[in-house]
Amino acid sequence: MMGEQVILDLLKAIALFFLNPVWLIAIVVAVGLGYFRVKRERRSFLVRLHPGLTEMKRLLAESWLPALILSVLLSGIGLTVDIGWIVLFSAAAILAMISFYYQATSPIYFAAIAFFGLYALQQFVPDFAFRGWTVADLDLFGDLALTVPVIAGLFLIAEGVLIRRHIARYASPFLTNTNRGLRAAAFKAKRLWLLPIVFLVPGDFMLAFTPYWPQLTLGATTFSFLPVPIIIGFSQIARASFPDVLFPKIGQAVITIGAIVVVIGAFAWWMPILGWAALLVGVIGRVMLSIIVAVRERKGGFAAAPKPTGVIIAGILPESPGDKLGLLPGECIRTVNGIQVSNEKELYDAIQVNAAHCRLQVIGRDGEVRLMQQVLYRHDHHRLGLLVVR
To answer: Where are the membrane-spanning stretches (predicted)?
Structure first.
């Protein structure tokens, strides 16, 4: 009977996680992201680059491993957080998600809002209590001044890893007008990740739902393992740089900011005010990074701009002949099957000259000219799977 009860408790905990509004809203929003991306791509190229449900499918597929590592790390070193902080963190994440303003969905913002929100409650509503939880019991110059900044810094590191590894691959090209009235390609990345993190929370919170849920007891204090869906979002347009160049650099910068936050936050063990400073450093650093990147990309020219001769590649359909050739956005196709091309129609017509074999002369991003060839099969895309600037 006890074994069956333990299994039921586990199922209840899983149900609590999947019924969490953060999780449910994240699924809906991820579907919406894919829908609007497909509309934007078809408006520019009459075809979409990736299926509309890609964002929803990648919501957890890319983030489960960082979530597992963070959960083991947080529980292993005993970093505990208050349930009130988790609630405010989740509320801030929900508001950011439904706003669709994903420049503001870095977890460092949610962590800081939740922490300073608890401080505001202590100052203005010191008697606030809910089901046994009281804001007056919080010591924001004690353990929370250490654990919250360190956890926030680790979340920033996870955010940077996700940006560096996955954003460039799914950057969405679209056409826009240059200052000269020409059409050029820019690349928009708007992604959402969900990390199922297991927190260590003081008290017997989970016992009210699952009596046999695993707990730890240290001295007179009881700790519960609490699974919580954590949201990380990202949004950025690359136009002066190519996605595979810009986004890994942004990811590395976010990792560096996260490491700085963790180091400063760790010193809160001896000087709690440094924990407050670490959160502010993280927020300011992340904001400044977003501003600097946005300004540079807007002021710079278009990396994928049209040229007098040749056709500029804006994107390549996955598993297409162009993808197998190793073509990259921003490269220029000068000739196809020995025929010089300067627009999409000429490109298509030149491909039809030899329906079984295609020979390209391509100018790379570095200006080097190279010759490429690919055997074409009946099921292959009739335009090599290329989205071009037109």
So the answer is: 14-38, 59-77, 83-101, 108-125, 145-163, 192-212, 218-238, 250-270, 276-295
Give 188-200 pLDDT, tens digit per residue. Answer: 999 999 999 988 8
Distance of CA 202 to the CA centre of its chain: 30
Instruction: Indicate the burial class of 332 (C-beta count within 10 angstroms; 0-12, 13-18, 19 or more).
Output: buried
Contact 39, 170 (CB under 8 A): no
N residues, the chain: 390
Q: What is the pLDDT of residues 210-224, one digit of tens each?
A: 555 666 666 556 777
> Comparing C-alpha atoms, which of 109, 68, 74, 60 is closest to residue 88?
109
Measured CA to CA, the distance from residue 339 to residue 296 in angstroms comes to 37
pLDDT at 116: 95
How many Å apart are CA 281 and CA 149, to the nearest integer?
Answer: 10
Going by C-alpha positions, the residue among 86, 85, 82, 109 that lies closest to residue 97 is 109
Q: What angle do CA 133, 80, 29 make, to 5 degrees?
A: 80
What is the set of domains in the chain, with CATH numbers? 2-299 (no CATH), 311-388 (2.30.42.10)
Tokens 């949004």, residue located: 235
pLDDT at 76 over 90: no
**163: exposed, middle or buried (Cβ count in 10 Å: 0-12, 13-18, 19+):** buried
Query: What is the arithmetic mean of pLDDT over 178-193?
Result: 90
Say which residues have a Cβ less than 8 Å from residue 21's Cβ, sequence separation at least 6: 90, 94
Q: List pLDDT tens digits, range 249-267.
A: 999 999 999 999 999 999 9
